[in-house]
Design a protein that fits this description.
single chain; 60 residues; mainly alpha
């Protein structure tokens, strides 16, 4: 798709490992997973419509 193969992924993983260290990788993976799940949930849920009536006293 973007021309990313196995060698490119290995190089990317090594760069991330050098920058963040081995201890931070699980935290980064968890954060990315939560973000992807949240995005999928937000996209798949229908939009909510507010049907509460307006209060005539609060008209500005």
């Amino acid at each position: 798709m973007f021309g990313i193969g196995i060698p490119e992924l290995v190089i990317l993983l090594v760069i991330v490992l050098v920058i963040f260290g081995a201890g931070k990788l699980p935290e980064i993976g968890s954060g990315v997973g939560k973000a992807i799940r949240g995005f999928k949930k937000g996209v798949s849920e229908p939009d909510e419509i507010d049907v509460t009536p307006e209060d005539p006293k609060n008209k500005d």
